[in-house]
Amino acid sequence: MIVCSCNALSHDDIRDAVQRVRQVRPYGPITVGELYRVLGTRPKCGTCLSHATEHAKRYDTAGGGMCCQCPGSKCWSCDRAQPAADADDVVAA
To answer: Does residue 74 contact residue 29 with C-beta atoms inside 8 Å?
Structure first.
C-alpha cells in the first residue's frame, strides 16, 4: 500500500524505517520526521503525515502500538525512555 505518493513510499518502507530507528534507539517516540530522514527524503505536500504516523504506530512493537505525539500521553515507550539518539546516528545505522 502506498503511504506517500509524492515520495512513492509504501507501508513496507515505513516498517523498515521504524526497524532502523529501533536498532539505534530501542525506546521512546518515533516522529514522522525521523522516518523520512531514515528514508532519505522529506514530506512534500504533507497529506501523508497522519497516514505515515498510523503505520509507524502499527509497526513499532517497542511502543505496543501507542505513541507519545499527543501532549500528556504516557505510554510504554515514555516510561522506558532513554536519551534520544542523534538523527545522524539513525541515518548511519
So the answer is: no
